[in-house]
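Bug #2210: token dump truncated for TRAP transporter substrate-binding protein?
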Amino acid sequence: MKIAQRLGRIAALATVSALCLGVAAEARELRGWNLHVPDYPGSIAMEKFGEILAEKTEGRYTGSVFHNGQLGDQRFAIEQFALDGIDFAVFSGGSLGDFATALQIVSMPYIFRSAEHMYAVVDGEIGERLSDSLADHNMVALAWYTGGARSFYTVSKPINEPADLSGMKIRVPDAEIFVSTVEALGANATPLAFGEVYTALQTGVIDGAENNSPSFESTRHYEVAKFYSLDEHLMVPEALVVSKTLWDSLSEEDQQTFRDAARESAELQRELWAEREEKSNAILAEAGVQVNVVEDKQPFIDAMGPVYEKLVNTDELRALLQDIQAVE
Ligand code: BDP
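Reproduced locally. Full output below:
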């Protein structure tokens, strides 16, 4: 090769590396999808995730969280991951369950003995399996938030036993696990987007809905639904996910930074959750909501047989269920 040619090649290579470095050094603003109001525990924790990333990568990655479902409802946002429209989000295990059945198992009614049991499951090896099951949907789950326990709130009467739900129209998120659980209790499950529930309660399109107290309170649904019956039928973990395309593009060091940031954000969310539950309960009491603790949950638990039969329907899912139950 002639010297001039060789020099030419070297110059070209140098330009390419400079370009690569230029691209790598460019700041990347990550779009975050979030369903809740900005002062919600998960919202604050998602912001924190972005802040830690910005700090630890010296601004190469920053997070921009779009709250209040501005980027669309949950099902739509999950689908957007496949198209790389969203870079990170916090999704309910129940909603993810329509896409990856392992997530449905971890969202089954009365599956966890306590919040500690849930944390032990998702923070351990099972959490990694759950994350792997999301790969086909272009997601990696880096950490898990709590979604509290979901109970019924209703407009005209309290719920003490499943028979009280008979024939009632109860709003549920648009996903199989919620529909099946509420129908097994004898109600008429009505899937609706989160943002449509207030008006639906107000206009009598539905007789009630079900959620944890921070969501019941932050949406102000308690202004219309004055009965909150704590049967705690679902305790659903929520996944802090990032796009797999993004994940695969990260250096190993950056992946570790993302993981650490996600774990720290989940720790914060769980702390804030406990505080917000207290605050929400106080607001509900102040607003005159009649809260009744369902003392005997057994009839609710017993009614879940058909849900398990229907949804835990492969050897793999049966094994996963057993593994979850075996976690101390
Ligand atoms: C909230 C969850 C969110 C659900 C929402 C709902 O955080 O993921 O989709 O309930 O009921 O508690 O739609």
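Output looks complete on our side. Confidence is low (pLDDT under 50) at residues 6-23. Marking as cannot-reproduce; reopen if the truncation happens again.
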